[in-house]
Amino acid sequence: MNHRTSAAPSPVTLDDVRGAQKMLSGIARVTGLEGSRYLSRLVGAPVHLKCENLQRTGSFKLRGAYIRIAGLLPEERAAGVVAASAGNHAQGVALAASLLGVKATVFMPKGAPLPKISATREYGAEVILHGQVVDETMAAAIAHAEETGAVFIHPFDHPDVITGQGTVGLEILEQCPEVRTIVVGVGGGGLAAGIAVAVKSLRPDVRIVGVQAEGAAAYPPSLAAGHPVAVPRPVTMADGIKVGRPGEVPFALVSELVDEVRTVGEDQLSAALLHCLERAKLVVEPAGASPVAALLADPRSFRGPVVAVLSGGNVDPVLLQGVLRHGMTVQGRYFAVRVRLDDRPGSLATLLSVLSEMDANVLDVSHRRTAPRLGPTEAEVEVHLETKGPEHCAEVHRALRAAGYAIAD
């Protein structure tokens, strides 16, 4: 459904996106489209994954950054560019500026993952760590631009950036001309807006579904209000779509051209990331996995063939470890039980033998001998297990109870 009735001229046109596609030839990769048998079976129609996680710099951001910087006047290029980002936009601006011979300064939060900081420097940018959250980093970058005359490169709120991102949409139509639904993650809205301009101009019948993280979902209230509305404190593991307020330019396009914006929870993002790794053999960051999360949550609501855009793969290894563990927990493959037993030699070995017979993999064991709830001859053991799924979890519980163990949790 369309949310706007205004007939104001679009800030981005199909011709703009086609021109950007020519400019990006030899610069950005034409990323592959991979079929997913599992998702296709769930949806009941072909599902393809658009692998922007395999783009140069690990995300779609290079496309928009390059078009924006390439469009600067000579005197603007001479002044350099400045950006603020926790990761993907930083790397996209750094590489684009390097390819165009422009000096880039990138402000990043002090807590940004070290691999993303290192990659941004390796792409040729000067990195300045400032602030604890992106809003503070953004303010510092804008101040730097005003002081030095450098051009601030916004991550999503500029027509040239949206134009560059729209080339993803043209590639999808070329690679999957029979597509009927495109699912794309939404933060500020630049990627969704660009894809929508390109696709709706050529195939207005194609349904475009945006996906936001529940804890950073600014678009649903903004669409309801008819103007951008801020989420006071966005919270999500998906930092690539952790944006507190839609951009003015992409909001106008999304509200007019995107058919629906859905939300997914953290559990669903974790499960989707795990799915991409295990089933598709693709490393995808939580934001990039958001379209897959939406498909897994309600597969039969999508008209196929479907293309899900995996927008990025720059996931911090520390975060990846935690997200995978969380995803396994959501799927019933990793859980913890507290078991009360007699505090005497051999008790733990007996417990572990029961678990071994059930083919449950013990990951960690911790003992507690002093607690108000424990008797003088009792101990409590917390065991972290890896199982084969919810049914196996239930079997382990039954086996423990049958063996006479009191399960505290």
UniProtKB/TrEMBL annotation:
It is an enzyme of class 4 (lyase). InterPro entries: ACT-like_dom_sf (IPR045865), ACT_dom (IPR002912), ACT_ThrD-II-like (IPR044561), Ser/Thr_Dehydratase (IPR050147), Ser/Thr_deHydtase_PyrdxlP-BS (IPR000634), Thr_deHydtase_catblc (IPR005789), TrpB-like_PALP (IPR001926), TrpB-like_PALP_sf (IPR036052). Residues 336-409 form the ACT domain. Pfam families: ACT, PALP. Coiled coil: none annotated. Pathway: Amino-acid degradation; L-threonine degradation via propanoate pathway; propanoate from L-threonine: step 1/4; Amino-acid biosynthesis; L-isoleucine biosynthesis; 2-oxobutanoate from L-threonine: step 1/1. SUPFAM superfamilies: ACT-like (SSF55021), Tryptophan synthase beta subunit-like PLP-dependent enzymes (SSF53686). Keywords: Allosteric enzyme, Amino-acid biosynthesis, Branched-chain amino acid biosynthesis, Isoleucine biosynthesis, Lyase, Pyridoxal phosphate. It comes from the Bacteria. Its EC number is 4.3.1.19. GO terms for molecular function: threonine deaminase activity. Belongs to the serine/threonine dehydratase family. In the native structure, TdcB is in a dimeric form, whereas in the TdcB-AMP complex, it exists in a tetrameric form (dimer of dimers). PANTHER family: L-THREONINE DEHYDRATASE CATABOLIC TDCB, THREONINE DEHYDRATASE, MITOCHONDRIAL-RELATED. This is L-threonine dehydratase catabolic TdcB. It comes from Streptomyces fragilis. The gene is ilvA.
